[in-house]
Write a structure and sequence with these properties.
L,D-transpeptidase catalytic domain-like; ten-stranded mixed β-sheet; 12 strands; globular; disordered N terminus; hydrolase; Transpep_catalytic_dom; peptidoglycan synthesis; cell shape; cell wall biogenesis/degradation
């Protein structure tokens, strides 16, 4: 049976609301120790999902509402997220970052317009009512994004129509550290 170990505060270094894994905690993870933080989310090892690190990896856990981001130099940070409202709106599987936009404009998908005909056809970037926030990572799946949000009450909840949302300051950090071609998995 695998030994269990709790994360201690020294194992995680807070960086602008995200967490950076130290070499000590990475060695514990590689040793197969099960670790949980005070919010009870499970940390994933990228090697359990991908063959190589490449340009970087993002794993978004839609159950525990956490995004883990590894850069190509193996630095990993953790961010709380919002996730889709229902399982029907949730995509799972492998994709990749195909485009990045600062202050992206937003247009509801055809199915969103069908469910919410009162919604505007388009909201420009920078508009306070724009649900994509200050940055967006466009994935190879049509209409699916990892983006910021103006409504911080959504983080930690099932609240989106299909995307993964982060606080604006977190998506700006992920955006700056993520090249096009970064591998992504939603679980």
């Amino acid at each position: 049976m695998a030994e269990r170990q709790s994360l201690n505060r020294r194992s995680l270094i807070a960086i602008s609301g995200a967490f950076l894994m130290t070499p000590h905690t990475l060695r514990a993870e590689e040793a197969g120790l099960v670790r949980r933080n005070i919010s009870s989310f499970v940390l994933h090892n990228w090697r359990d999902h991908f063959d190589r690190l490449g340009k970087g990896i993002i794993i978004s856990d839609t159950v525990t509402k956490v995004l883990q981001h590894w850069t190509e130099d193996e630095e990993m940070r953790i961010y709380p997220t919002s996730v889709p409202l229902t399982d029907e709106l949730t995509k799972r599987g492998y994709t990749e970052v195909v485009e990045k936009r600062e202050n992206p404009g937003w247009a509801p998908t055809p199915s969103m317009r069908e469910r919410n005909p009162e919604w505007p056809a388009y909201v420009p970037g920078g508009d306070p009512s724009n649900p994509l926030g200050t940055r967006a990572l466009y994935l190879s799946w049509q209409y699916y994004r990892i983006h910021g949000t103006q409504d911080t009450r959504k983080i930690g909840r099932r609240s989106s129509n299909g995307c993964i949302g982060l606080y604006n300051e977190h998506i700006e950090e992920v955006f700056d550290r993520t090249p096009v071609g970064t591998q992504v998995k939603l679980i």
